[in-house]
Amino acid sequence: MSDAKEPRKVNLADAIREKLAQKKQQSGASQQGGFQSGSTKTLKSQNTKKPNNQRRRTGGS
């Protein structure tokens, strides 16, 4: 696809290996260690959760 001059056939396994190698190289250059800092979510306090009052609504057992 990037080679417009030379349309050659690439089997799927080779294409996946090449893509994975590019991905590893890119991620290895942008981060130190195994921690993925780019995909972290902001933590939400669990104290703001509403209590589960299903037992009170349904009469309990």
Chain-wise SSE layout:
Layout: H1 12-30, H2 54-58
Biased composition (Basic and acidic residues): 1-21
Biased composition (Basic residues): 52-61
Organism: Paenibacillus ottowii
Describe this structure in words.
- Residues 1-21 have a biased composition (Basic and acidic residues).
- This is DUF5302 domain-containing protein.
- Residues 40-51 have a biased composition (Polar residues).
- Residues 52-61 have a biased composition (Basic residues).
- The chain is elongated and about 75 Å long.
- 39% of the residues lie in helices and 0% in strands.
- The chain contains two helices and no strands.
- The chain has 61 residues and is mainly alpha-helical.
Keywords:
61 residues, 2 helices, mainly alpha, single chain
Which shape, going by the Cα principal axes? Answer: elongated
Uncertain stretches: none
Order of helices and strands: HH
Rg is 25 Å
Describe this structure in a few short sentences.
This protein is mostly helical and 61 residues long. It contains two helices and no strands. The mean pLDDT is 75.
